[in-house]
Write a structure and sequence with these properties.
156 residues; alpha+beta; 3 helices
Length: 156
């Protein structure tokens, strides 16, 4: 049985490229911009497809933590001066601590459709207070898959 994970990444009804996405982690709410997702020339012209690709990469990284554990960085907000990431840490390859935070790595240096090339550069992660959850990696993967499917269905 899958437990409910207090993590949701969603597209808001508002059209536009600023504050049109929202990340909820625990009780923390964060408005995000889709701008860099829309202008990623390596991706689709459809925001829903680009968001789904972003979360597909998240799933790949979470899957890599199974068994051996480790740390993965999953971006969710791309801004000119900085980026926001989820740091997923697992010591045992089964459970995870998910913490939202900031990095000074600028969004213009990242292709959201292939952010994994930049993720190793996240050495300045600055956690956001009260933006943390704990769950199993299985439940986290299921939550991300549900978010991915909802975002893909959101169309343009």
């Amino acid at each position: 049985m899958t437990a409910t994970v207090a993590l949701k990444f969603e597209r808001l009804a508002k059209k536009g490229d600023h504050s049109d996405l929202r990340m909820d982690i625990g009780a923390h709410r964060h408005a995000c911009d889709s701008y860099y997702l829309v202008i990623d020339q390596s991706a689709s012209r459809h925001l829903g497809a680009n968001l789904a690709r972003l979360l597909e990469q998240w799933m790949e990284q979470v899957d890599e933590l199974r068994d051996a554990g480790g740390t993965a960085y999953l971006p969710y907000d791309f801004s000119d001066q900085c980026t926001a990431w989820l740091r997923v840490s697992s010591t045992d390859g089964r459970t995870a601590e998910v913490q939202a935070g900031w990095s000074l790595v600028e969004a213009w240096r990242i292709k959201p459709s292939n952010y994994r090339a930049t993720a190793p550069e996240i050495t300045d992660f600055d956690p956001i207070a009260n933006a943390q959850i704990e769950c199993s990696l299985d439940d986290l993967a299921a939550c991300i898959a549900g978010n991915r499917d909802a975002l893909a269905a959101s169309g343009q």
